[in-house]
């Protein structure tokens, strides 16, 4: 399964939460060629939420989402439900990263990101 096939239910979820804009494959630094991109970026009048989408590699997704948390108000990892069911949520809580669980047609937030320590 390709990551982009998981985008539709994630977009529906965040648009239902009041985000009015979505951008795909957004470079972190538009003027620098770092190669770092955010899979999905959701924007509303108050905040921006970044979502890293993976089909299996939750550790890589967590690392990317943690980096995103320095640039955006909220940062999430989105994974298929069968992968989410095997996760230790305390690792994500430690890094203040949320989790989105995806099945074939629906996505849901199963862990909200915590407030990063540098904002407390």
Structural class: alpha/beta
- Give the % helix: 25-40%
Strand content: 25-35%
Q: Specify the number of helices.
A: 4
Regions with little confidence, pLDDT below 50 for 5+ residues: none
Kindly describe this structure.
- This protein is α/β, with parallel strands linked by helices and 120 residues long.
- It has one domain: 3-Layer(aba) Sandwich (Trna Endonuclease, Chain: A, domain 1), CATH 3.40.1350.
- The protein is built from four helices and six strands; from the N terminus they run H-E-E-E-H-E-H-H-E-E.
- A six-stranded mixed beta sheet has the order 1-2-3-4-5-6, sandwiched between helices.
- The radius of gyration is 13 Å and the shape is globular.
- The termini are far apart.
- The mean pLDDT is 90.
Question: Main attributes?
Answer:
globular; 4 helices; Trna Endonuclease, Chain: A, domain 1; 120 residues; alpha/beta
Write the layout of secondary structure elements.
Blueprint: H1 7-16, E1 21-27, E2 37-43, E3 48-53, H2 58-68, E4 74-80, H3 81-84, H4 89-94, E5 98-102, E6 107-111
Parallel strand pairs: 3-4, 4-5
Antiparallel strand pairs: 1-2, 2-3, 5-6
Question: What's the gist of this structure?
Answer:
The protein is of the alpha/beta class.
């Amino acid at each position: 399964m390709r990551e982009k096939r998981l985008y539709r239910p994630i977009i529906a979820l965040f648009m239902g939460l009041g985000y009015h804009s979505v951008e795909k494959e957004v470079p972190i630094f538009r003027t620098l060629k770092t190669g770092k991109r955010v899979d999905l970026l959701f924007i509303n009048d108050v905040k921006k939420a970044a979502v890293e989408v993976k089909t299996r590699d939750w550790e890589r997704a967590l690392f990317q989402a943690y980096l995103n948390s320095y640039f955006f108000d909220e940062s999430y990892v989105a994974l298929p439900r069968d992968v989410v069911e095997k996760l230790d949520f305390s690792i994500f809580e430690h890094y203040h990263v949320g989790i989105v669980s995806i099945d074939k047609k629906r996505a849901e937030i199963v862990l909200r990101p915590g407030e990063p320590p540098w904002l407390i």
